[in-house]
Structure formats: C-alpha cells, structure tokens
Predict the structure.
Amino acid sequence: MEKPYILHMLTTAKNLSPFDVNMAMDAGWVSAVPYINVEPGEVQGLVQDAIFSRSTKNLKRTAIFIGGRDTKQAMDMLKAAKQAMVPPFEVSVFADPSGAFTTAAGMMAAVERELNSKFNTGLTGKNMIALGGTGPVGQAAAVIAAKAGANVRIIGRQLEKAQGIADMCNTEFGEGKIAIAAGADADKAEYIKTADIVVATGAAGIELLSAELVASAPQLKVAADVNAVPPAGIAGVDAMQNGTPINGSGSGAVGIGALAIGNIKYQAQNRLLKRMIETNKPVYLHFEHAFEVAQDYIKSAS
Amino acid sequence: MEKRSILHMLDPNPHNSPFDINMAMDAGFDVMMPYSNVKLESVHGLVQDAIFSRGPGGVKKTAIFIGGRNLGVAVDMMEAAKKAMVPPFEVSVFADPSGAYTTAAALVACVEKQLKEKHGKELKDCHGVVFGGTGSVGIATGIIASLAGADITLTDHLSVDTALAVANEYNGRFGCTLKGTYASSDADKARLVTHADIIFCTAKAGIQVLNKDILDDAKQLLVAGDVNAVPPLGIEGIKRSDMGAPLIHAINSPGAVGIGALAVGNVKYQLQNLLLKELLETDKPVYLDFRDAFAKARKM
C-alpha cells in the first residue's frame, strides 16, 4: 500500500487559514494536519517528531507548511525548520504567512508582465512605491521588486514604523544586498511624481491613492491593488481589471486588480504545494520561489 | 458504502505529535482527528461522544489514541477511557505518550536480546541504570525492565527528590521496584556506571550523557542502549545503527556491546505500527499500553 501524503500545517495564529487547507488538499495532500498557536520555539521539536517516523522513501510524502501572520516570524520558523532536519531525515517546508508570499509574488509577476507587454521594459531600475506597505504583502512585494532591481519605497502612515520595516526587509530578507527606502503616507504626492509602479497593499476598503494623485503621476506605468473590497485602494483600478488602462491616468498607466492578482497567487501557491509532492530532494520555499513559479505561470499562460 | 476507519487522537499537550500522526496514517487509518489540550476530565465525555455515533458495527472501525508527554497523565487517561465505555458501545484504546511506551518496549527488548545472545544472561540477572530516567521514555523503560526482574535505578540529572518521587509513584502504580538517584557530574555518572550490567540512555535528544572517560569506569557492563538520534549521541562510541556492536570505550568491560537509536527506533517503529494495526484488525476492543508493547516487542 502506498503511504498517504501528509502535510503538517503549523500556524502561530489560533486557527489555520481554511484557504490554505483547501489549497493543500486540492494540490494532492491527503491529510492536512493542523497545529495551532505554535510558538516559534516549538518548531524544532515538531519538525524532528515529524521526520523520524517515516522511512526516507515515505518522507517524500511528508511536508511542513508554515502559516501565521508575521513575515519575519514565518521566515525564522522556516530557518528553524531547516536547521532541525537530520539528513537523510529531511522534508520540504513552505512558508506563506497569511498567503502574503504568494499574493505578493502573484502581484509582482503581473506587474512585470505589464511592464514587458505594454512598455517593453522590466522591473530593473524602476521606481516603485508600496502604499500601505508595512504589512506582510507589502513587505514581500517590496523585497521581490528590490531583488529584481527596482528602487523600492515602503510607504506607511508613520515614517518611523515604515523605516523600521524597510530596514528589517533589507537585513532579514535581502541579506543586506537590497536597499528598500521608507516614506510617510503624508508625502505620497511627492513620491508619486517619480513613481513608475504603485502597489497598494493596505487594509481592505481604504483608498490609498486618489484619482487626483493618479492623474498627477507623470511616469506611472503600472498600478496594482490587492484590495478586493470597495472602495478600491487605487482610484480607477477595479478588482477585475487585468492590464487595461486606468481612466484618468495621464501617463497611460495600466491597472491590475485584486482578482487578477488572486488568480496568479492561486496558481503560485498550488505549484509550490505540488512541488513539495513532486520533488526528489527536500525544498525550502518562500517568497522568492513563489515569484519564480508566478513568472513561470505567466509564461505558460501567455 | 463501507464506513471509514477513524482514529481519534487525544493529547493533553498544545500539539499532537507529528510522529504519531504519521504513524497512524501509515498504519492504515482512513481518517485521523487531532484533539489537543485535552484535560483528563474531558476524556469521559470525548470517549462517550465517539462510541455512540456509529452503531455496533461502526465502533469496530473507530479507535482512540492517547498521546501527550507525561506518562502518569496517559495512564490516568487510559483508565478514564476504559471506564467511559458502555458495551457493546466500546472501542479500542492505545496509549503511547511521546511514543514512550513503544520506545521503551523496543529499547528493553533490544537490550534483553543482546544480553541473551552475547552474554547468556537475563534481565533478572542484571543491575541497570536509566540515565534521563525521569522523562517519559526513561520511566517506561525502568518500569518494563523492573517488571521483567531487573534491579533498576532511575537517575535524574538534577534532583534526587524528583528521581525518588518518580520511583515511588510508579512502584505504587505498577508494582515494580524502581530506585531513584541523581547524576549531575561526570563523577556521579561514573559511580553509577561502575556497578551497572546494563545502561539505558533516555535523556534529551542532542545531549551526550556518557563520554568515554565515564565509560572507562564501567567494570561489569554487558549492554548499553541509547535512544538519542540527534548528534551528539547519548553514549560516546555507540553509532546510531549499532545493534550489538562492541562498546569500544568501555575498555574495562570486555565484551560489552551497544545499541544505537536507529536500531531501537526501527523496532519501535514496527512495534507502534503493529499496535496501531491491531486497533484496526481486532474484533474485540483492546486496551494497549507498555505491557502489551513489551510483550509484542519480545516476540519480534
């Protein structure tokens, strides 16, 4: 009898996300086992418990998913999980806190696609501002864009907090090789003047960029919004929009809405969950891998 | 449609053990349901909830697993589960907190086998020391070996009071004759090792308990077994897959052999698998604990 595929799903929150559970089962995992209220310090013990009960052959049918809400915490748990492995007793791990890594990856892959197809350019050298960018999706999007060569600024209501998040992203996720800047929301009228890309990753139902500011952006090319709840995060970008021009943009910018992003996010998360089933060698997956598979999906879909 | 087999896994800890979950699924249960933070007083209600919803045919495809980290709690939960049954509404129950019952049963069975094969001796001929003796695996190891006739001392790495309290508690519960002491320094350990025929190392993973200098003091050691699979291993010189390999650092105990964590783990794994399968296959409800685990391990 073939052994079943078991995904141990760890979250620091008090519930798993049903979204992630559905995604795991649909990707082919037979059993999705919940571990809630997990403390980061418990990761080592849980991982070692999981790896020593199956033969190395059947460990290929075992993996760990790390959810939660906090980006850095999830990355730290991913690192702790990797360190807990005792090769050849080793399983794949995939971190996607709040779905933020795959959401950010889906959004940035869509932005890149629009830059390629509408403006014949890429992320390198572009100025990007992440409005409401201090949350998990904003952080991951900023790091993905910065690693791809964009000049990124995380914008938040409080400059100090935004600066702290930008510094954390640079050191924790960029190994010091990226230099994400910070800005205050009050100054966004200034930043929009030089922005090629705007992403809105704030709380649902809050307008982060008004129609006036969209109209005032002289070099804006792509605006993406992860908010699916009206009012839109970026005026003129509706949830269904997928690369059509934004009404009122003087620079001919195109918009990408939450549902278009959600579709790519879904594909990326599905592919990474499947990769853990198909891989022969354990893999440790986070936002970078999410961006790779989101790009692959876009290539295969075009 | 034939009913699916369901294993309800009760755990007093915040998390069910991923180890046990893998094992349960691999033994062939169709559905595994985790229950964490389970209190002793909740067991009665949970068990009765489980037995009354599937009919007399359905209960044969239903079983309960008791996990956790604490041996005493698991023993109490097993008792509570038994009392909650209302025949013919009755399901099988298997307790294996921390995998301690099956690990201990496998460890003692391996040591017993090597004693017989390499030295022609029985457990009842032996003085034994359990290092890490106040953890769940250590306690279960001590009880099993003691009930099989060995003279066993449980050691705690810090406190003699803890060791004595544990020994007394389980002597009372199971009619064994455990002793308790502490061993914090290398000198303490060496003193205990000097007169030991058998040594069980059941301390935390990743901690070396006995180094080669301590093993130098062993004067009559026959067999030593270690359950720590995470380097550094518990007993210097025993490799993880050793099963009766010469104990190279016990230079004053010629003929002494060692058993490593993967050798024990291999038996434990098969044992836990067999016991979980028994829950699925039995026609009459069974209640399985370390005694059943050891009886089965001896036959393997």
User: Anything to note?
Assistant: The CA atoms of residues 72 and 169 of chain B lie 9 Å apart. The domain at 100-264 of chain B is CATH 3.40.50.720 (Rossmann fold). Chain B has two domains: 6-95, 100-264.
